[in-house]
Amino acid sequence: MSANLLTLSGVHTHIAAYHILHGVDLVVPRGQLTMLLGRNGAGKTTTLRTVMGLWQASAGRITLGDQDITRLSTPQIASLGVAYVPENMGIFADLTVKENMLLAARSAQRASQIDEARLQWIFKLFPAVEKFWNHPAGKLSGGQKQMLAVSRAIVEPRELLIVDEPSKGLAPAIINNMIEAFGQLKASGVTILLVEQNFNFAKRLGDRVAVMDNGQIVHAGAMKELAEDESLQQKLLGLAL
């Protein structure tokens, strides 16, 4: 079994006439939380969407474990145990929280068929999901919608969880709750790839970090090393902490 669950090798992505990714090399080790950082427009979201098959790589190779997934469709990739939470969360606003969860639980036709132990685990991670179970999802706050989006992604066991900017627009108290939840998810054995703009969020959670600029990975290593090197932060991210 490969030590890396996800590997991108020389991945290029074109969107219409635009060349967005320019040979991305990225590894996501099993059982760890990898942060993907970079300035706006660096190519982070495009990388996630390319991994999920929402946009097709024009060159290079993407592997999940030992399986080449470069040309697979999004449903095929999802069926291999990969869940994706996009930046816009993808919540069905007119459906209840329960109905949103049921749609994500592909093995269940009724809410009563969702794995009860797993559901109770999710309720402990995100109490708002239980509290607003029968409420329309569109009525939730931004933080509650983000909790629902992550809950849907993990309602069935996943090998890899990919999340785009989970802390965006959230209050500090909700961010702390999200950090605790992702920490528990990692401890349960889920491999996680997170795109983040909030560096404090990133350094509290990340095991590994990769930094993107102009469609390429320009730095990769331990999150702890980047968190302790302010000059490197300034060079890579323009941060002054």
Question: Can you walk me through this structure?
Answer:
Helix 3 (97-104) runs parallel beside helix 6 (142-153). Strand 7, helix 7 and strand 8 (191-195) form a beta-alpha-beta unit. This protein has helices at residues 44-51, 74-79, 97-104, 116-125, 127-131, 142-153, 172-187, 199-205, 223-227, 230-237, and strands at residues 4-15, 18-29, 33-38, 59-64, 67-68, 82-85, 160-164, 191-195, 208-213, 216-222. The mean pLDDT is 92. The protein has 241 residues and is of the alpha/beta class. The strands form 2 sheets. A 6-stranded mixed β-sheet has the order 6-7-8-3-9-10, with helices on both faces. The chain has a 4-stranded antiparallel β-sheet with strand order 2-1-4-5, with helices on one face. The protein is 35% helix and 27% strand. The protein has 2 domains: 1-81 and 158-241, P-loop containing nucleotide triphosphate hydrolases (Rossmann fold, 3-Layer(aba) Sandwich); 92-157, no CATH class. The longest helix is centred in the last third of the chain and has 16 residues, at 172-187.
Task: Outline the secondary-structure elements.
Layout: E1 4-15, E2 18-29, E3 33-38, H1 44-51, E4 59-64, E5 67-68, H2 74-79, E6 82-85, H3 97-104, H4 116-125, H5 127-131, H6 142-153, E7 160-164, H7 172-187, E8 191-195, H8 199-205, E9 208-213, E10 216-222, H9 223-227, H10 230-237
Parallel strand pairs: 3-8, 3-9, 6-7, 7-8
Antiparallel strand pairs: 1-2, 1-4, 4-5, 9-10
